[in-house]
Amino acid sequence: MSEHHEIVFRSDVTVELVRHQASDADVIFAARVSTQGEQTLEGAAAGEQATERDRGLINYLMRDRHGSPFEHNSLTFYVQAPIFVFREFMRHRIASYNEESGRYRELRPVFYVPGPERKLVQVGKPGAYEFEDGTSEQHQMAVDEIKAACTAGYEAYTRMLDAGIAREVARVSLPVSLYSSMYVTMNARSLMNFLSLRTTREGTHFPSFPQREIEMVAEKMEAFWEPLMPMTAETFNANGRVAP
């Protein structure tokens, strides 16, 4: 007999920075080996910060897209989001992922529904469309229909578990609005590539129009990264948010 849980509906995402070794000094350390030969890791490992004198070098590397010095750092995030967000996230083959498994544990019934601020109506054709708010009736319909589908899917899931059907089979009835969790580890160069594609900003060289739910994750990741590597983040923005 499976343990039944109360169904929970959420409209947010969770992002935590659980581990990091990332600073502007890491970029300077990596870049200077090309002109000065063997370097010492002591400064970067001790948490030294880049100085104003280093800002020009970081800007040069970003502007001229000398990207490899931005790879010598690491950030590990813990993310909770609906499965459809993770499917988009993992299209970026620039990180290491470990996600919770529906084969080895019973999945909790936590599902995503769009919040009142979520734009619902697509106007225009693919490649040239915008989203509009929609009416209050449309929003209520979306919430009601999603909740009904999620409830039916979870009830089918628990019925199959109660009947002795394996978790890996029973989970097939669950929708992609189900929340999952994962650790994702990447370096700053990979993160900037992700941010350039999954956030909308004015003045970018290559405008992006991500689905709002993955943008919510990207915004939280950027908020953790920016104070760790402020010069890198500043030059990333100043150069049109193009990943080096």
UniProtKB/TrEMBL annotation:
Identify which cofactors the protein needs according to its UniProt entry: FAD
List, in alphabetical order, the GO biological process terms annotated in this UniProt record: dTMP biosynthetic process; dTTP biosynthetic process; methylation
Q: Which reaction does it catalyse?
A: dUMP + (6R)-5,10-methylene-5,6,7,8-tetrahydrofolate + NADPH + H(+) = dTMP + (6S)-5,6,7,8-tetrahydrofolate + NADP(+)
Designated name of the protein = Flavin-dependent thymidylate synthase
Please name the InterPro entries in this protein's record. Answer: Thymidylate_synthase_ThyX, Thymidylate_synthase_ThyX_sf
MF term (GO), any: flavin adenine dinucleotide binding
Record bears the keyword Amino-acid biosynthesis = no
Q: What is its EC number?
A: 2.1.1.148
Please give the PANTHER family that the UniProt record associates with this protein: FLAVIN-DEPENDENT THYMIDYLATE SYNTHASE
Instruction: Give residues annotated as binding FAD.
Output: 68, 91-93, 99, 187-189, 193
Cofactor binding mode and count? Binds 4 FAD per tetramer. Each FAD binding site is formed by three monomers.
Associated pathway: Pyrimidine metabolism; dTTP biosynthesis
Q: Where does dUMP bind?
A: 88-91, 99-103, 171, 198
Active site (catalytic residues): 198
Subunit composition and interactions: Homotetramer.
Q: Summarize the protein's role.
A: Catalyzes the reductive methylation of 2'-deoxyuridine-5'-monophosphate (dUMP) to 2'-deoxythymidine-5'-monophosphate (dTMP) while utilizing 5,10-methylenetetrahydrofolate (mTHF) as the methyl donor, and NADPH and FADH(2) as the reductant.
According to the UniProt entry, where is the signal peptide? none
**Is the Methyltransferase keyword given for this protein?**
yes
UniProt record similarity statement: Belongs to the thymidylate synthase ThyX family.
Q: Which UniProt keywords apply?
A: FAD, Flavoprotein, Methyltransferase, NADP, Nucleotide biosynthesis, Transferase
User: A single Pfam family, by name?
Assistant: Thy1
